[in-house]
């Protein structure tokens, strides 16, 4: 397998210089070739595979030598800071080198720099002349990054520097996460601290630790660490959108205890399986009204138990992650021999009805029913209470935000995330979210009440707090007006039905007026992560205009 046209490329310092577009073309070609081999059912030899990966690695190496040397990256000061940050390993929970870097960075410039007991860093910059009477503004981003890479790339996130390259309007990394989430936020802050001649009041630049694996930096921050009046969080991923609210969340677990027993004689065992649902994130995607495998399978068992007295439940398994909508699941039930055909017929009717209900969101549902080996069953009373509770429990959207400004965003929701039957226990995991804390309490209480009525033991986790929209927010108004002035269009003001560090800040600093925005990122938390370069300049200009216009204290 030869690399096409490689010999025609210019050779400088023994390195082929080729454009990113060219590399991608070569790439596509080889991947297509590799894909075809598989698709056509040919045996793909190890040697072919090695060749493929070798070429891919060569392509990456070629790209390494063709990067970040140009003027496309503006504002230059922000991208310079970002390039330096990307030299420093900073996986979540292992940010020691980044903390050290920030500390030295601030101190070496004579700026008031502090590190708190959990590792958050704050660097203060005084107002520029004439702006001393302005309110203090906090700029905040998280210093850690998600570490993910392609399988065939050798990379040690604890030692190696992220290698970036430009592809059209996007900045990407060579086979790893880029760390623009939220390294670009950190870079913007450092650029502000580093720039002379800007116009702004007192500034506090805050860099939190470990946002990605539990928000523990923001969680552990003491209430006297930041002293500002306004906070701009730079961890949002869509330029042109200004976030003003986020959800709080909590998990609720229910546990039923039971004894297994022999099924009555003359019973027939059936396994029902459902797969192919779309699923998704239980916060971000809950507004899409997709099917939940647990609710659907539970509903079929409920219907069967009501219709055929004596139906026994042996197994029910569905769902994994607390924050995902379950995409598949299966159960085993036992029914008297003479009823098995009725149950199969019911299953087919039920499948058709459910497919019709979800004919827009879930068009690839796969239903399967087969006979199963006989086994022990859950005692009748507990099985019934469990299935009745699944039928009764609220799921999906519970309430929509009352603020018109948030345009019909989901305010409160619940997702039954997993169900597993064992030898003596049934465990159910669900997660509740709301952008209003009292409604989060209410949603959790609703779930708890249903399962307790059914005889389960229920516990709720501590979770994380919501950031409620402030209709009177001066900072939001300023962010909208300055955006309009700069770009001659309105930004979208919105909330997010998932957690942000702002939720924790709003609990600890109730007076703080906050917004969140940032440059456009795509495919974050994957090796495809990319930063839309032109939006960095837009966010920079917007931020400077906001800072210039921050009100007096
Ligand atoms: Zn982030």
Helix and strand topology:
Blueprint (H helix, E strand, L loop, with lengths): L10 E2 L2 E2 L3 H20 L6 H19 L11 H10 L10 H13 L3 E4 L5 E5 L11 E6 L21 E4 L2 E4 L6 H15 L8 E6 L7 H5 L9 E4 L7 E6 L1 E10 L2 E2 L5 E9 L17 H15 L4 E7 L10 E8 L3 H18 L8 E6 L5 E2 L1 H13 L3 E5 L9 E12 L3 E10 L2 H17 L3 E4 L13 H14 L4 E5 L4 H8 L4 E4 L4 E2 L7 E3 H17 L4
Parallel strand pairs: 5-8, 5-9, 9-23, 10-22
Antiparallel strand pairs: 1-2, 3-4, 4-8, 6-7, 7-25, 11-20, 11-21, 12-17, 13-15, 13-16, 14-15, 14-19, 18-19, 19-20, 24-25
Helix pairs in contact: 1-2, 3-5, 7-9, 11-13
The structure holds zinc ion.
Zinc ion (ZN) binds next to helix 5.
Overview of the molecule:
With 553 residues, the protein is α+β, with helices and mostly antiparallel strands. It has three domains: 6-64; 76-247 and 470-549, Aminopeptidase; 249-460, Alpha-Beta Plaits (2-Layer Sandwich). Helices cover 33% and strands 24% of the residues. It is built from 13 helices and 25 strands. It has helices spanning 20-39, 46-64, 76-85, 96-108, 180-194, 216-220, 293-307, 340-357, 380-392, 437-453, 474-487, 501-508, 533-549, and strands at 11-12, 15-16, 112-115, 121-125, 137-142, 164-167, 170-173, 203-208, 230-233, 241-246, 248-257, 260-261, 267-275, 312-318, 329-336, 366-371, 377-378, 396-400, 410-421, 425-434, 457-460, 492-496, 513-516, 521-522, 530-532. Strands 11, 13, 14, 15, 16, 18, 19, 20 and 21 form a nine-stranded antiparallel β-sheet that branches. Strands 3-4-8-5-9-23 form a six-stranded mixed β-sheet, sandwiched between helices. Strands 6-7-25-24 form a four-stranded antiparallel β-sheet. A hairpin with a 3-residue loop joins strand 19 and strand 20 (425-434). Helix 3 crosses helix 5 and helix 7 (293-307) crosses helix 9 (380-392). The protein is elongated and about 90 Å long. The chain binds zinc ion (ZN).
């Amino acid at each position: 397998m030869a690399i096409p046209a490689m010999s025609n490329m210019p050779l400088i310092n023994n390195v082929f210089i080729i454009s990113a577009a060219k590399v991608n073309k070569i790439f596509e070609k080889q991947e297509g070739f590799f894909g075809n081999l598989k698709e056509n059912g040919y045996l793909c030899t190890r040697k072919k595979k090695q060749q493929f990966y070798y070429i891919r690695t060569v392509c990456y190496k070629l790209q390494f030598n063709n990067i970040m040397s140009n003027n496309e990256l503006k504002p230059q000061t922000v991208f310079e800071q970002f390039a330096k940050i990307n030299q420093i390993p900073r996986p979540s929970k292992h940010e020691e080198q980044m903390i050290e870097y920030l500390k030295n960075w601030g101190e070496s410039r004579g700026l008031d720099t502090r590190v708190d007991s959990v590792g958050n860093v704050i660097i203060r910059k005084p107002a520029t002349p004439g702006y001393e009477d302005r309110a203090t503004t906090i700029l905040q981003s998280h210093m850690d990054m998600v570490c993910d890479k392609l399988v065939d790339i050798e990379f040690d996130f604890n030692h190696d520097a992220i290698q970036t390259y430009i592809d059209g309007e996007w900045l990407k990394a060579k086979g790893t996460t880029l760390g623009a989430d939220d390294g670009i936020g950190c870079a913007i802050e450092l650029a502000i601290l580093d720039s002379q001649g800007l116009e702004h009041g007192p500034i506090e630049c805050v860099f939190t630790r470990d946002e990605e694996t539990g928000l523990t930096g923001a969680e552990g921050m003491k209430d006297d660490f930041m002293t500002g009046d306004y906070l701009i969080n730079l961890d949002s991923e869509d330029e042109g959108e200004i976030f003003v609210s986020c959800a709080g969340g909590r998990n609720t677990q229910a546990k039923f205890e039971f004894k297994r027993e022999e099924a009555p004689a003359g019973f027939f065992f059936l396994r029902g399986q459902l797969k192919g649902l779309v699923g998704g994130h239980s916060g971000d995607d809950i507004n899409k009204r997709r099917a939940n495998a647990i609710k659907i399978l539970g509903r079929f068992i409920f219907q069967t138990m009501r219709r055929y007295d004596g139906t026994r439940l042996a197994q029910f398994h569905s769902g994994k992650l607390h924050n995902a909508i379950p995409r598949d699941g299966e159960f085993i039930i036992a029914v008297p021999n003479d009823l098995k055909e009725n149950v199969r017929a019911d299953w087919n009717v039920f499948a058709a009805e459910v497919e019709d209900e979800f004919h827009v969101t879930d068009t690839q549902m796969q239903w399967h029913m087969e006979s199963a080996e006989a086994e022990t069953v859950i005692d009748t009373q507990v099985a019934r209470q469990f299935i009745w509770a699944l039928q009764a429990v609220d799921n999906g959207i519970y309430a929509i935000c009352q603020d018109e400004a948030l345009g019909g965003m989901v305010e409160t929701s619940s997702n039954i995330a997993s169900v597993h039957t064992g030898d003596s226990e049934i465990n159910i995991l669900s997660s509740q979210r709301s952008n209003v804390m009292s409604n989060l309490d209410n949603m959790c209480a609703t779930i708890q009440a249903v399962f307790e009525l059914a005889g389960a033991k229920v516990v709720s986790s501590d979770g994380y707090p919501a950031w409620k929209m402030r209709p009177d927010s001066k900072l939001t108004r300023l962010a909208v007006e300055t955006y309009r002035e700069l770009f001659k269009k309105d930004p979208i003001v919105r909330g997010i039905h998932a957690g942000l560090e702002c939720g924790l800040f709003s609990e600890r600093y109730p007076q703080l007026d906050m917004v969140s925005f940032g440059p456009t990122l795509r495919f974050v938390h994957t090796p495809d992560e990319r930063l839309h370069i032109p939006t960095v300049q837009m966010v920079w200009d917007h931020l400077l205009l906001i800072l210039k216009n921050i009100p007096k204290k």
